[in-house]
Amino acid sequence: MSNLITEKKYRIKIPEGKKKERLDTFLTNCIENATRSKIQKLIEANLVTVNGNFVKPSHHVQPADYVEATIPIAPRPEETEPEEIPLNIIYEDDYLIIVNKPPGMVAHPAYANYTGTLVNALLYHSQKLSNINEPSRPGIVHRIDKDTSGLLVVAKDDWTHAKLAEQFSRHSIEREYWAVAWGLFKEKSGEINFNITRSKSDRKKFTTSNSEGKTATTFYNMLEEFEFASLVKLNLKTGRTHQIRVHLSGIGHPIFGDGTYGGRQLVYGSTLPKLKSRLQNLLDLMPRQALHAKTLGFMHPHKNEFVKFDSPLPGDMITLLDKLRIKNT
To answer: Which CATH number belongs to the domain containing residue 14 in this structure?
Structure first.
């Protein structure tokens, strides 16, 4: 296998109607599996130009700008290597690990992300992980999106993995997410029932449907309301890819900061200069979707008792909520 570094080039024209946005934030949302820190390093290494000019990560792009980026891509290694990456472990015993994943970390190696993943960190931490999955996914029972933070359960042996997977398949796992969503909900609690299917216009995205795709149910409860956003608790009956993000976007309340499903558009305040500026500043502070997998509960396969774990909100969501609580005067 060659050890030469390959590269992928992007040339993006900012569309009409697009709001001004920081260059690093814009590219993080445009390029699959990119993180803001990686994008910033590329910009600082002069691998990104705007209209042919080198600029800073904080440069704001606007409609009609041309952004060009060169992304170095290392070839896929023959084996996933252990890496000394800090892990926030909530609980661990001889059979499983509960990890609080930070935002920006990919669960397992995949195209353009063969290092720095949760699996790389787990291989360094533990000599014992299940082997049911393909070799690049040892121990991984389920996943959450790269830019979603929160709890994951990891299996140390195949029997534990199989028993946990059965619970996910039966939808008996208790999963609670907290999200900041655009707008104020008419009902303080409710149930979202839309099928989820791949978008016909963009195969990397999903969309709601009344007939096509897989059935999906999300329950929501209002926790706190702000001037133009809400803190919402969400529970999954099913576990479809991007389910919460797609469901909330489908009912007109996309998750704040979610560039894939409408959460980086100024849903409110675009005609009020003072509010518009405040909202843009908040979006700059939250370069990802404001979604956190807060609670995880299941029957422990060996103890035969229900166990439940909770994790605090990450710093970026706490900062966002603190600023949302300050009324715009």
So the answer is: 3.10.290.10
